[in-house]
Amino acid sequence: MIDSHCHLADETFSAELAGVVARAKAAGVERALVILEAGNDQEAAQARRVHDLWPDVRTSIGIHPHAAHEYGTDVARVISTVRDQIATTATVRAVGEIGLDYHYDYSPREVQQTVFRAQVRLARDLKLPVVIHTREADEDTMTVLRDEGKGELTGVLHCFSGTTDLARAGLDLGFYISFAGMLTFNNAGPLRDTARLVPLDRLMTETDSPFLAPVPHRGKRNEPALVSHVVATLAQLHAIDVQEMDQHTTANFHRLFRP
Question: Which CATH code, of 3.20.20.140, 3.40.50.2300, 3.10.350.10, 3.40.50.300, is assigned to 2-257?
Fold first, then answer.
């Protein structure tokens, strides 16, 4: 199994990192993509600890829309911060998570868009896929990906919680769609309907841990071992067995991130 998006470098895991990694391996999680906040020295140090414990993990680095206000319209600083850290991190396979978040608006929307556009251009220049965070910003997110990606960009819409229209727009761009624990929630009927429509060769699985623990662990801290619940739910939705779904989502991860 694959956890295509987790935050093992978050301080939440620092005291119990070895146990979290051991449980992931015991559950059959082959690889994980650990998301790092560009310029965060604490996360970079913990990511090195994760890699020592689990050499098969890979990383993605980017400036989250919540942090965009720290850079304002200083595009040169955005690019240098992300590019420099990528250059010194051998495990990097993507730029992200990046995108737009109009739900919390922790950063002004125009600043979010400036920072997002700069990172999409950088990803295209580096020939790396992008890991996209979008919340209540569907139209603007897709506009940026079309404008700056210029048909050359690949990536994944992570922790998908959007509409069927957003999923189709992402698929039309050649993107993958990744589902997390919310797919298992009792009130997630519309999301499960969307998941049924995503082709098997475009599906991915993730935890987004420590957030969004799946049923029956909802409300607790999430971790990579629990991605099995997402795989099982997707298998049920597509009327195939769990092993086959695991094979599809694992192959998709390898195809996109070339780990």
Answer: 3.20.20.140
Question: Following DSSP, what letter does each residue of 95-121 receive, concatenated?
Answer: EEEEEEETTT-SS-HHHHHHHHHHHHH
Encoding tokens for residue 126? Answer: 């580096």
Q: Where are the domains of the chain?
A: 2-257
In angstroms, the Cα distances linking 65 to 21, 99, 114, 123, 195 are 28, 6, 10, 16, 25
User: In the 8-state DSSP scheme, what is residue 178?
Assistant: E
Lookup result for tokens 């987790």 = 6
Q: What is the pLDDT along the chain (259 residues), one digit of tens a residue?
A: 999 999 999 999 999 999 999 999 999 999 999 999 999 999 999 999 999 999 999 999 999 999 999 999 999 999 999 999 999 999 999 999 999 999 999 999 999 999 999 999 999 999 999 999 999 999 999 999 999 999 999 999 999 999 999 999 999 999 999 999 999 999 999 999 999 999 999 999 999 999 999 999 999 999 999 999 999 999 999 999 999 999 999 999 999 999 8
- 101 phi and psi angles, rounded to 5 deg: -135, 100
DSSP E strands: which ranges in 38-181? 58-62, 92-101, 130-135, 155-157, 176-179
The residues with which 133 forms a beta bridge, in sequence order, are 99
